Amino acid sequence: MGLHNLTRFLFLLAVYIVSLGFFPKGVVGFACNWGTRSTHPLPPHIVVQLMKDNGFNKVKLFEADAGALKALGNSGIQVMVGIPNDLLAPIASSVNNAVAWVTQNVSNYISKNGVDIRYVAVGNEPFLKTYDNKFVQSTYPALENIQAALIKAGLGRQVKVTVPLNADVYQSDSGLPSAGDFRPDIHDKMMEIIKFLNQNNAPLTINIYPFLSLDADPNFPKEYAFFNGSAPPVVDGSITYTNVLDANFDTLVSALEKNGYGSMPIIIGEVGWPTDGSSSANIQNAQRFNQGLFDRIVKGQGSPKRPTPPDIYVFGLIDEDFKSIDPGNFERHWGVFNFDGSIKYPLNLGRGKSLVAAKGVKYLPRQWCVMSPQASTSDPNFAESMSKACTYADCTSLSPGSSCGNLDTRGNASYAFNMYYQTMDQRNDACQFNNLSMITKIDPSPLQSACKFEIMIDLGKHDRSTSLAAPIMERNSLVMLVSSFMFIILLSLWI
């Protein structure tokens, strides 16, 4: 092939690769958690595109959600699919139950949908102290049975098992990472799990939350929670720690070393910072923490004891307004993105890339339900109306220190009424609070405030548009086939 023809060939090759979409739109290498506890979830295909646009090529699901898994098919995104804690006992009790779960939720999606499932997460923080040993006895046998089921399905090498654990499974009596060891009450169980994972070349997954350390302890040095903080460093022998994430992670490494598993691979299954629901959960802190976290991931920075960085699954991708708030009101606000995939705050993803918002989101009409100007807060039905609204809708942004925590009583009522109205899809009867409310087309969100009166996603419009997805996918497949054929023809002409 002559130089001229070689140049034309390389040009055609570049055009061909671009036509197939091989060039990533974002920075490749991020991982995230995709929770689905929302009253108005984004359509799964929009979420998958959101991940691809922002360089997320790994995702952890907390359960085998059918819509999410189908949307992840042939996406190029690696998947960790979770087993909820309430399924641990039945799976532990029978290997046949484990085989049925793997067949339905792993083999099925790999073979029929082309989902790149790499891990099965058996349980979610099952040894958490607040569970009071409820799942301690069933976790290990469930892990064994799922591994046996994967081997039976011919997936023993392709799909690995793991158990996402909270960082409270280890501790340090001295407060220094080098003294790390596993909690005495679960030490033997942890050794069973770690030995089993090691035998099957599977990683240990741990969830680390600097936010929770800060939120739970008024004496916790705030700056130590961040990566560029000015808190006094913690000196541990020859190692100096400047942030709690490194110190926490290395406490686990020390615990593994102490028990003979110093080279055990580790995944950080969850780490992030919420934006609402408590005084420490705000946009400024979340942006500061997550920017530092993303910077570390981009630079490939590990901890002092493990310089090679682990896979880090950011928690979470999008907000979930239907999630349990037992741990705190902040639970519904962990997303890097808002519930609708819009950007909460800017993040630099490296290589000149910034966050990209979700595309193609359809909303309910621009109207809100608010407290009527004629209504009075002394009305005998006022308290009952507020209670009804916040029982069935998310009012966590009204909690003290939150984005809407400074509203007056009438503002609180308007916010609560609107959240109920939007959650109920703006039904005509959803803005009838004993003659206390009215519908307005003027956005009631306070000016110069982080408080936002939401309008929900229109699920009906997305349902109707979903039927168009299959023909579009078929057309795209045809275009790719024609592109391949044309490329082969053109290539033959220049060789």
Automatic annotation (TrEMBL):
Q: Which GO terms describe its molecular function?
A: glucan endo-1,3-beta-D-glucosidase activity
Q: What class of enzyme is it?
A: hydrolase
| Listed Gene3D superfamilies | 1.20.58.1040, Glycosidases (3.20.20.80)
Cell location = Cell membrane
Q: Name one Pfam family in it.
A: X8
Q: Which reaction does it catalyse?
A: Hydrolysis of (1->3)-beta-D-glucosidic linkages in (1->3)-beta-D-glucans
Any stretches that span the bilayer, and where are they?
Answer: 477-494
Q: Which residues form the X8 domain?
A: 367-453
Check the UniProt entry and state the signal peptide residues, or none. Answer: none
Enzyme Commission code? 3.2.1.39
Keyword Membrane attached: yes
Keyword Metal-binding in annotation: no
Membrane topology field: Lipid-anchor; GPI-anchor
| Key words, A-Z | Cell membrane, Disulfide bond, Glycoprotein, Glycosidase, GPI-anchor, Hydrolase, Lipoprotein, Membrane, Plant defense, Signal, Transmembrane, Transmembrane helix
Q: Name one GO cellular component term.
A: side of membrane
Please name the GO terms of the biological process aspect recorded for this protein, alphabetically: carbohydrate metabolic process; defense response
Question: Which family, according to UniProt?
Answer: Belongs to the glycosyl hydrolase 17 family.
* Name of this protein: glucan endo-1,3-beta-D-glucosidase
**What organism is listed for this UniProt entry?**
Senna tora
